[in-house]
Design goal:
Blueprint (H helix, E strand, L loop, with lengths): L2 E5 L10 H7 L4 E4 L6 H5 L6 E4 L5 H13 L4 E5 L10 H10 L3 E4 L4 H9 L12 E5 L12 H5 L4 E5 L5 H12 L4 E6 L7 E6 L3 H8 L5 E5 L32
Parallel strand pairs: 1-4, 1-5, 2-3, 2-4, 6-7
Antiparallel strand pairs: 7-10, 8-9, 8-10
Helix pairs in contact: 3-4
Bound molecules: S-adenosylmethionine (SAM).
S-adenosylmethionine (SAM) binds next to helix 5 and strand 10.
Length: about 260
Amino acid sequence: MKVFIIGAGPGDPELLTLRAAKLISTCPVVLYTGSLVPSEAIAMARKDAKVLDSSSMTLDKIVAVIAAARDANQDVARVHTGDPSIFGSVAEQMRRFAELGIEYEIVPGVSSFSAAAAVLGRELTLPELSQTVILTRAEGRTPMPEREKLRELASHRATLVLFLSITLIRDVVDALMPEYGGECPVSVVHKASCPDQKIVAGTLNDIQGRVRAAGIRSQSIIIVGRILTSTDFADSRLYAPNFTHGFRRAKAENEK
Ligand SMILES: C[S@@+](CC[C@H](N)C(=O)[O-])C[C@H]1O[C@@H](n2cnc3c(N)ncnc32)[C@H](O)[C@@H]1O
């Protein structure tokens, strides 16, 4: 018996991995995290599978469901949105599984931040402009570690991706403004890859009003940084004719 902790991707069922689809359609118990898990993924479950939504359960209840599956020697597909390793609240579950001697395995998924970058048609890292992506959130009811407050992180001026922060957009703008400046581009992607996806683009100066006007209050990724609009970035070394790497030798001066 094993618990498969599965990333179901950002919402589009075509962004499920083959491995996720195979496990969801074969495990006798499917326990999924609620609304953003694609309904098509849940519909793949076996007709006789026990399918449960964990969104109203406590950790104790989730563990009890999984312990019962262990007692019945049934594999569990524990289905999470996006990729389980990012704000997935899976660590506390895995700690409990380890205490109970329940075997588990993580199956990665497409995170919503990757899906957001994809629908914006942007690369998050650009040569000489930003080579660092910070995945974080604004401080709400969950306190942030002291060294990870947005004002601290802003000092790097790296590409910044915020989860779980759309209702705190005002605080985000206030914290970032001193380092990034009011003209810094910001994009908000609501329900990336879903049929009701919305994209709002602006700057730190005006993004708050644009988000309000669009009526967006949940399930959004906020991306901040010059990579969103830059067109005059340098080419990468990877494809430069004068750059040797493991798969290609640079051409000599006299070579055509
Ligand atoms: C509990 S976290 C889970 C993140 C997930 N593990 C991932 O890798 O995308 C939920 C937050 O992820 C973001 N999110 C999840 N799915 C999204 C989507 N399809 N579009 C935009 N944001 C999404 C939102 O910021 C939402 O508040």
